Amino acid sequence: MSGENWLNKNWIREDQLYVPKRKVNNRGSNWYAHIIGSFYSEKMNRPVEYESLGERLFYYFLELDRDVVRYYVQSVEVPIKEGSGIFGTTTWTHISDVLVFRQESIPLLYQIKHSSQQGPDDKEQLINKYCNSYALKQGWEYKVIYPKEMPNQLSWNIRFLQGFLKERTYYDQWMQKVAYRMQCMESGSIEDVSRSFQGDIDPLLIRPIIYFLMARGTFHFDVTERITSHTRVSLNEQMLSMKTIREGLPNNGIQSTESLF
User: In whole angstroms, what is the distance from residue 69 CA to residue 100 CA?
Assistant: First the structure.
């Protein structure tokens, strides 16, 4: 779906408008332990809170999706009207899970659910109706998604690579060398690439750089197979500047949310 170019946008207004409207809470902890928490978002440069493992997985996905420019959790209040007739109408506010700005797409308002096996109850149908209407009025799209139903291998890869998004101080000295070595090799396993530096640096220090370049979309790999030392990687042929090595390219690496949800 076509949309705006968000890359050069000043996000000051959105950062103020879409601040979280509530704190995460521990409701449900009687049934599901340790389902709330937060992590530091490299994309948003601030902590992001979640209140389910499905939310956390999807936010990790947004961190890795190279087309996602910005996302705001618990940020949109949708007025809901319920009931009619002699008993009157009750008005309350639903706070949606996340508003996502993807390059060349209109904004997407997401509701994150645990499972699609059981259809929405009456309350959820009402929420979906009003959220969809609200999104249309804003020129957005609304979707209900089930992140925990994505393939297990892809889910594992997302959780794994999210931990390597932060650039460490020593990476700058070795990233371009790793990218150039990959260009010379054309393709190779993570183990082979890291061991090719034996004698210059401990290969175990090269592996995090490879994972970082995979997470940033600079190295191609098969996201449907679980990442191991035998995973084969290759270099995107469109790059070799340090900026592109560090930041990767759009549409490279983890698949976009449009095609998975």
Answer: 8
Q: How far apart are CA 137 and CA 140, in angstroms?
A: 7
pTM score of the predicted model? 0.87
pLDDT tens column, 181-232? 998 999 999 999 999 999 999 999 999 999 999 999 889 999 889 999 999 9
Q: How far is CA 27 from CA 31, 32, 72, 75, in A?
A: 9, 9, 22, 19
Beta carbons within 8 Å of 87's beta carbon, 6+ residues apart: none
Residue of 114, 112, 74 whose CA lies nearest to 94: 74
Q: Which residues, other chains included, contact 238 with Cβ-Cβ below 8 Å and sequence gap of 6+?
A: 244, 249
DSSP string, 161-186: HHTT-SPPTTHHHHHHHHHHHHHHHS
- The answer to whether residues 188 and 182 touch, using CB atoms and an 8 Å cutoff, is yes
Return d(Cα 112, Cα 175) in angstroms, integer. Answer: 36
Terminal-to-terminal C-alpha distance of the chain? 14
In this structure, are residues 15 and 46 in contact, taking their beta carbons and an 8 Å threshold? no
